[in-house]
Amino acid sequence: MSIPPSADQLLLAPDGTPTQQEWEGAVAAVLRKSGRLTSDDPDSAAWSSLTRTTLDGIPVLPLGTPETAAELPDPGLPGQAPFTRGATATRPFGAWDIRARFEDPDAELTALHVTDDLENGVNSLWLVLGESGIAVEHLDTVLEPVLLDLAPVVLDAPEQPVRAASEFVRHLVHRGVTPAPGTNLGANPIGHRDKRPMAKEVVRDVADLAVREGLKAIMVDGTAVHDRGGSDVQELAYTIAAGAEYLRLLAQAGHDPNTAAGLIEFRYAATAEQFPTIAKLRAARQLWSRVLELSHVDAPLRGQSQHAVTSRPMMTRYDPYTNMLRTTVAAFSAAVGGASAITVLPFDEPLGLPESFSRRIARNTSSLLAAESHVAAVTDPAGGSHAVERLTQDLAEAAWELFGRVEEDGGLIHDLKDGSWDRAIAEVVERRREQVARRTRPITGLSEFPQVAETLPQRRAYAVPRQVVRHGADFEALRDQPAPTPLFVATLGTVAQHTARATFLTNLLAAGGITARTVGATTGVEDVLAAYQGEKVVALAGTDREYAEWGPDLVAALRGAGAEHVVLAGKPVEGVEVDDNAAMGLDALAFLHRTRERLGVPTSQPDAGPTTEVAP
């Protein structure tokens, strides 16, 4: 086997640039030490080993090289077509619009939250109105402390879009205020199942109000697909198809292409998968620019106004403080991806209505990224990265192909009605569930490193229970109903010998709401039996050598003492007759269901359909 070149040797390459083969050799050496590659694997296996594939089957490369991006089209400059690198050359707010979301039905409390947020870094307001949020008749109370000529307001009233828009305009007229640029009446009838038949009338009425007052009218909300479990490509294709539908509806209402384009804003989900998020936002601008080009919109007006929201499905109800880390990475990704407005959802969002503390953490996340980390100091910092440019183009091409199929079918409204979107999203949900179940898509604090006895913060319930297909919903369902009795972990040998597998096993069990009772160092069967307290389910944790030497005798002794179900931590070992095994790569969810049943919890494997977790 050849010895890979050292770092000094790589730097001394003839042209000063290491080759991909040299990189593979150096990386393969590290992967062999960690056990991810064997001595028989070629160095080139390092590339495939580190390449991650998205749910759409698109590779996220471990390294960007000139070859990977050689044939890509010119992405242009920020603020210029095709707007891949940014809708504007500079950010209007100096960084990005920090947009806070408000949905608490208590109008007076919401007004206090609005004031607090605006005084401490928030630039614009996202108001949820109607059954799921603030009553439309309380709009005056919420807006009373707001300087509407300085702070843009974005409405979100799925049940009453026209009434909400009319009330907001009435409020503007009553106060004699010229609204701040970026203010959006937020109609989105295509995205609301009950309003699709009325889409034409809603768009016409809201657009008339918006044009008269100099506002935006439409919010194309891609998070509707993301929250249901859709992939990045599906979210992109959905938003572009919805945008095209709105352009047609606005044209029918008498608006020219340039005016129609200026009435539409887009909302996307930002996740903790930073490179796909960065590429998704860049691809969205490129796609929308092409749609507007085909719609004969003037080139300077083809930039997409983007509002990024940290993902709801990626958040967890358990260990909710970990959500701060997820939303920080998501906000960073949205900022690097060039979103013009960013909403960081509070870390306790899955538990109920956020409180002052969590709202402060959320708004400060953007402030710290902009003011202290200087993420906005460079426009499109990912631009020119071969890997990001490749991923951007791959996402754009896949989404454009899906958009084309939607148009051939008769448009988005047609496909939404016939259920084809539901079926396609369900397939993605199932792929993700399989990865989460096997922990190849780990969720910290839930499927990995859970706190089995944690006390969750208490929050007030939402006005209307929301349905979000949370990525960890299956594990959360297990945690909601913890096992009534512990599982006994029989450790074999010294602490150094059994720690790795005992830790793996106890963390795995905790992810399923199972408490493990472990033993310290042991030297033989008698030590284990002395600690055994009659548990019906036991597990063995030790090295393969210890398993082979005294595992058979220990299993027999435990069964004789009352154990009914024996699990081995690790792969099967010849001669050690157990009922189940727990090793890396197993279907953790299926294993936990089996073990819980043995512990007396009447559970069953979830069905193949989407698992929807309804927040309280």
Plain-language structure description:
The protein is of the alpha/beta class and 616 residues long. It folds into three domains: 7-50, no CATH class; 97-416, TIM Barrel (Alpha-Beta Barrel); 482-598, Cobalamin-binding domain (Rossmann fold), CATH 3.40.50. Helix content is 44%, strand content 11%. It has 21 helices and 17 strands. Strands 5-4-3-10-9-8-7-6 form an eight-stranded parallel sheet. Strands 13-12-14-15-16 form a five-stranded parallel sheet, with helices on both faces. Helix 18 links the parallel strand 12 (487-491) and strand 13. Helix 9 crosses helix 14. The radius of gyration is 28 Å and the shape is globular.
Indicate the proportion of strand residues: 5-15%
Main β-sheet, spatial strand arrangement? 5-4-3-10-9-8-7-6
Low-confidence stretches: 1-12, 607-616
- Given the C-alpha coordinates, what overall shape results? globular
Features:
single chain; 616 residues; TIM Barrel; Rossmann fold; 8-stranded parallel beta sheet; 5-stranded parallel beta sheet; 17 strands; disordered N terminus
Brief write-up:
With 616 residues, the chain is an alpha/beta fold.
Give the SSE map.
Blueprint: H1 7-11, H2 20-34, H3 45-50, E1 52-53, E2 59-60, E3 97-102, H4 107-119, E4 124-128, H5 139-143, E5 153-156, H6 161-175, E6 184-187, H7 199-213, E7 216-221, H8 223-227, H9 232-252, H10 257-262, E8 264-270, H11 274-294, E9 306-310, H12 323-337, E10 341-343, H13 356-371, H14 386-409, H15 412-418, H16 420-437, E11 467-468, H17 473-480, E12 487-491, H18 495-511, E13 516-518, H19 525-531, E14 537-541, H20 544-561, E15 565-569, E16 580-582, H21 588-598, E17 613-614
Parallel strand pairs: 3-4, 3-10, 4-5, 6-7, 7-8, 8-9, 9-10, 12-13, 12-14, 14-15, 15-16
Antiparallel strand pairs: 1-2, 11-17
Helix pairs in contact: 6-7, 7-9, 9-11, 9-14, 11-12, 11-14, 12-13
